[in-house]
């Protein structure tokens, strides 16, 4: 009888004492038992290291202490380099997230049944919200290009965060570093690149949980429109890899208009300098800058729409009265 495939699960952590035990316990409670759990301590100062040390006596657990403090992306890459050379699959669990008891079993089963699949995802909870909320054509196995097309052209939240995914370990070992530094959205970027060479699998069950922690880097940036900026950058960078020219042109045109409007509204609300610096740094990745003239023109259009709003409302009311059925006598 063939031995089950080993899964290397990695939890890189830094000062997540409030959630770390929950993340670790969710892995140790898996119905699939052929796994190792690698805990990577990034010089924590809040007692997270002591929490991790409590699990180090478990034969399934390895605890790694970084010699120096690393940035989040550097630490994630360092954690991925700790996986066993014998593992067939790799799964990251972010330290404030958790996975459901059958997560590894269901994801590994799909990957084992479909050797061409390099990336496996599933439905996930973001707080109490099920994501993705809509998949236009649900298939358990699709080409990497088809999955990327859903993300890029149809704006489907198919990938989620690293916690949502199971990867073939050979793909992780083949990219050094796995996540490119200096990117704003390095996790999704990496998967969009990987999907150019493998199929994608989706388990139609809720298998992971992501905590919407407003103290996280992503949480702090939510008012800066990170999703809208991410979509714009990824359409420019990965549209040519996965979309036809016509598909990319349509998606880019819609996203450019949406993005300009957001910047115009931000300018009208007098957003702080840090907001504009965030977008300048992001746009620099595609050789662009924030051009004031673009959102000034859009601001004028918004003001014109608002000025016409009462007129348009009256016109709609008049039309509704003309088409309203006559009252019975």
List the helices and strands and how they pair.
Blueprint: E1 7-13, H1 20-28, E2 35-41, H2 48-53, E3 61-65, H3 72-80, E4 89-92, E5 98-99, H4 103-113, E6 117-126, E7 129-131, E8 141-143, H5 144-153, E9 166-168, H6 169-173, H7 186-194, E10 199-210, H8 217-221, H9 226-242, H10 245-268, H11 273-284, H12 292-323
Parallel strand pairs: 1-2, 1-4, 2-3, 6-10
Antiparallel strand pairs: 4-9, 5-10, 6-7, 6-9, 8-10
How would you sum up this structure, described in words?
The protein is an alpha/beta fold and 329 residues long. Helices cover 45% and strands 17% of the residues. Helix 5 (144-153) packs across helix 9, helix 9 (226-242) runs antiparallel to helix 10 (245-268) and helix 10 crosses helix 12. The protein is globular and about 65 Å long.
Task: List its traits.
alpha/beta, 329 residues, disordered C terminus, 17% strand, ten-stranded mixed sheet, globular
Brief sketch in words of this structure:
The chain has 329 residues and is of the alpha/beta class. It is 45% helix and 17% strand. The protein is globular, with a radius of gyration of 23 Å.
Q: What is the overall number of helices? A: 12
The major sheet is characterized as:
10 strands, mixed
The global form is globular
Mean of residue pLDDT values:
90
Question: How much is the radius of gyration in Å?
Answer: 23 Å
Based on secondary structure, the structural category is alpha/beta
Q: What pattern of helices and strands is seen along the backbone?
A: EHEHEHEEHEEEHEHHEHHHHH
Kindly state the number of beta strands: 10
> Between the first and last Cα atoms, what is the distance in angstroms?
84 Å
* Low-pLDDT ranges: 323-329
Helix percentage: 40-55%
Strand content: 15-25%
């Amino acid at each position: 009888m063939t031995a089950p495939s080993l899964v290397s699960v990695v939890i890189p952590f830094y000062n997540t004492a409030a959630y770390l035990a929950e993340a670790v316990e969710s892995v140790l409670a898996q119905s699939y038992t052929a796994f190792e759990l690698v805990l990577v301590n990034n010089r924590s100062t809040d007692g997270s290291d002591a929490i991790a040390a409590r699990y180090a006596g478990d034969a399934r657990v390895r605890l790694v202490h970084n010699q120096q403090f690393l940035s989040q992306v550097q630490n994630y890459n360092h954690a991925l380099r700790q996986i066993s050379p014998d593992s067939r699959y790799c799964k990251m669990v972010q330290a404030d997230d958790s996975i459901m008891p059958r997560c590894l079993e269901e994801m590994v089963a799909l990957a084992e049944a479909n050797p061409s699949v390099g990336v496996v995802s599933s439905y996930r909870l973001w707080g109490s919200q099920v994501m993705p909320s809509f998949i236009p054509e649900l298939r358990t196995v699709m080409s990497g290009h088809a999955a990327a097309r859903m993300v890029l052209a149809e704006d489907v939240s198919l990938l989620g965060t690293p916690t949502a995914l199971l990867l073939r370990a050979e793909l992780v070992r083949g990219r050094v570093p796995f996540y490119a530094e200096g990117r704003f959205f390095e996790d999704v970027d990496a998967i969009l690149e990987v999907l150019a060479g493998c199929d994608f699998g989706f388990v139609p069950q809720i298998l992971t949980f992501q905590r919407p922690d407003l103290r996280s880097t992503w949480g702090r940036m939510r008012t800066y429109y990170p999703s809208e900026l991410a979509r714009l950058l990824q359409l420019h960078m990965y549209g040519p890899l996965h979309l036809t020219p016509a598909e990319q042109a349509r998606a880019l045109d819609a996203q450019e208009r949406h993005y300009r409007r957001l910047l115009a509204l931000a300018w009208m609300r007098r957003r702080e300098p840090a907001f504009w610096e965030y977008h300048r740094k992001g746009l620099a990745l595609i050789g662009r800058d924030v051009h004031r003239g673009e959102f000034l023109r859009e601001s004028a259009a918004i003001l014109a729409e608002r000025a016409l709003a009462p007129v348009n409302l009256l016109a709609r009311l008049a039309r509704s009265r003309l088409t309203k059925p006559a009252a019975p006598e």
